[in-house]
Design brief:
Radius of gyration: 19 Å
Number of strands: 4
Strand content: 25-35%
Number of helices: 4
Distance between the termini: 47 Å
Number of domains: 1
Order of helices and strands: EHHEEEHH
Structural class: alpha+beta
Shape: elongated
CATH class: Alpha Beta
CATH superfamily: Ribosome hibernation promotion factor-like
Mean pLDDT: 89
Strand order of the largest sheet: 1-2-3-4
CATH architecture: 2-Layer Sandwich
Largest sheet: 4 strands, mixed
Helix content: 40-55%
Length: 114
């Protein structure tokens, strides 16, 4: 999985970049079909803003955006945005799993006559 952290209208510190990368890296454990993730850190006036775009297989794209209030910490906004994208990925994964139908159990097959 490729992770790219970009910053607009600000100079992001190395600590902030590493924090965002470590939070987003957890997406791969949740859904292994994610190919690339782009994290965009921005400041509009005094308000920090974070946008995360995750690209997965079969042209599946997850987008989450979060903005903080005046004086909010960029780390807190990164956490909020990560939580939003985790929820999107969980919902998608549940939808795909439920759509596939029930699995075959071995007990049902073992009792059938041959």
């Amino acid at each position: 999985m490729t992770i790219v952290v970009k910053s607009r209208h600000m100079d992001a510190t190395d600590a902030l970049r590493q924090y965002a990368e470590s939070k987003v890296a957890k997406l791969e454990r949740l859904y292994d079909r994610i190919q690339s993730v782009e994290v965009i850190l921005d400041v509009e006036g005094d308000r920090p803003k974070v946008e995360i775009v995750a690209n997965a297989t079969k042209k599946t794209v997850f987008v989450a955006s979060a903005a903080g209030g005046n004086g909010d910490d960029m780390y807190a906004v990164v956490d909020d945005c990560c939580e939003k994208i985790f929820q999107q990925v969980r919902r998608h994964k549940d939808k795909v799993r439920d759509h596939q139908g029930p699995g075959h159990d071995r007990e049902g097959l073992a009792g059938s006559p041959q």
